[in-house]
Amino acid sequence: MNMFMEPGFWSLGSAELWVLIGLLVFIGIVVAAGVPKMAAKALDDKAAKIQSELDEAARLRAEAEAMLAQIRQEKAEAEAQAADMLAAAEADARRIEAEAKAKLEETLARRQALAERRIAQAEAQATAEVKAAAADLAAKAAQDILTARLATAKADPLIDSAIAQIGDKLN
């Protein structure tokens, strides 16, 4: 049931009536003081502040996305540059390897030719020494044979000098 319709509610001795009057006076003072306008203004200010923070956050997000895109682009460029540098380094390494191989083959060919020349010189020297030793031995043998034959025969100074000259001419 409705409390306002009860008997005795409207009498000045009713506590509920005085509470109602006090509440109405309080509401009147609050309205007269402009509290609803201040509350609305405070809420509007808070809403404006929140909106500006949201706008700032959106601007920062857009800025961050732009920076992220730029960083990704720079990363892609750096990776491409690194790949190019790697390819160039590999090409240089292959070129240097080919040059080193060619130089090594050239050096080996020179050393082999030098060794072959030295062997040929050693062979020629050995051949010359063998020929000289053979000639000396032949001259000595001829001298010994002729000396033995002439010892039995009469000695002739011309033959002796000719025999001595044979040894010198063969060397």
Topology readout:
Elements: H1 15-33, H2 35-152, H3 157-170
Provide a descriptive summary of the structure in words.
It is a single-pass membrane protein. Residues 40-125 form a coiled coil. It holds the Pfam family ATP-synt_B. This is ATP synthase subunit b. It is found in: Cell membrane; Endomembrane system. The protein is mostly helical. The protein has one domain. 88% of the residues lie in helices and 0% in strands. Helix 2 packs antiparallel against helix 3 (157-170). The longest helix has 118 residues, at 35-152. The protein is rod-shaped, with a radius of gyration of 65 Å. The model has no long low-confidence stretch (mean pLDDT 87).
Overall mean pLDDT score? 87
Helix content: over 70%
Question: What characteristic shape results from the CA principal axes?
Answer: rod-shaped
Number of helices: 3
Q: Determine the strand fraction and express it as a percent band.
A: under 5%
Strand-pairing-aware structural class: mainly alpha
Q: Give the C-alpha Rg.
A: 65 Å
* Low-pLDDT windows of residues: none
One letter per element, helices H and strands E, the order comes to HHH
Largest sheet: none
Q: Number of domains in the coordinates?
A: 1
CA-to-CA gap between the ends? 162 Å
Short description:
It is a single-pass membrane protein. Keywords: ATP synthesis, Cell membrane, CF(0), Coiled coil, Hydrogen ion transport, Ion transport, Membrane, Transmembrane, Transmembrane helix, Transport. The chain has 3 helices and no strands.
